């Protein structure tokens, strides 16, 4: 990539990359919250 | 052959959206954050031969403890040694190298488990993986600061939050993989390590592929640097070799070291503390640790973002003043028998532990400029390596000394907590001594 070339970022690109990191993170968060809920068990 | 890794090949063209860069950083940090979940493998690794219970030839927990310690020491060393290489070569080359080291470390460690040779595991996860940790940790920092000059704390906080969040993914994923590969005659730790290594390789390579650096003259649309210079925010740059000759570098080093030592002291002992102070079950103690990990992760984003509004120095003042009060309060939660108060205290402490990591890159940027911030940050991480040894040693030895002196287990942490509060006083003093860097250290531009 060069700084002179147009490199338009589409909404789909953004959605894909955020989904790539967001989905595993949310899955992990749900698992951890489930574990943390044992405080109230 | 590796031309695509060069910094000039990663310069973003017009129209590139800067919000593509935080996910690239998260691809790295979410993977290397697995280090916080390594303890999932502790028990299975003590039963590789005995399977149902440890055999005499099996590894001991004390031997396994060195794996994590080695990884943290090599994190600090590699970040300090290769910081300038990372800064000059750009984020893609560093992320690529981090991916090879980190995933390669898993594969070598897996071989060590297959051969039942702990030296392979020490070298694989501890040395090679530790280098991957160090390179990966610092690789996106200066890039994010350059993309978000208007909100540098928030940007680096987001990435470093990923390091805290990596364990959330790695922990349940590792348990599932272990379950899948284990049988009545075999514990599938080696196979789990191979799987994790390959997953992390792919993920980190994606991060390396999508990362971009801004063009030299780029700035966010509509954003103008503040016309009124702020006292603790320089527009000049300090060379990495010059930065560590300044008192400011060492004051921030002490600030980070004290904050991390105190935090590790609580984090590493939380499970045992809650069981011994309140008599809760191991499952509830696990829940408390899970809650603390959540606080650690969220604190990284919250405090780093807040530092953009109130300033870095004030943010650390909050950590130290609030921290001194909370650490001193923890022993009283034991005498009151209040688990709820204990959880609240430790959760807030954990937000500040994580917040300390996440806010420090922006603090360095304010003091030393953006040009060498990644390399300076790398050298500063030696404070983490020191704290990684100091924190657990302090807590373990003081606790043991207390018990040997006849103090009940439930009260054995009281002195430790007061000592941790004392460490925060040292941090508070170091923070209050931080002034703007003298102009004689600035680069001539």
Question: Which short descriptors sum up this protein?
Answer:
heterodimer; A: 41 residues; mainly alpha; 63% helix; B: 445 residues; globular
Strand content of chain A: under 5%
The major beta sheet of chain A can be summarized as: none
- Estimated helix fraction of chain A: 55-70%
Derived from helix and strand composition plus strand pairing, the structural class of chain B reads: mainly alpha
Query: What is the largest interface, and how many residues per chain?
Result: A-B, 30 and 41 residues
Radius of gyration from the alpha-carbon trace of chain A, in angstroms: 18 Å
Q: Which regions of chain A are unreliable across 5 or more consecutive residues at pLDDT < 50?
A: none
Could you say which overall geometry of chain B the principal axes of the C-alpha atoms support? globular
Ends distance of chain A: 54 Å
Q: Write down the oligomeric state.
A: heterodimer
> What is the string of SSEs of chain B from the N terminus onward?
HHHHHHHHHHHHHHHHH
Task: Give average pLDDT of chain B, whole number.
Answer: 92
Overall residue-averaged pLDDT value of chain A: 84
**Structural class by sheet pairing and helices of chain A:** mainly alpha
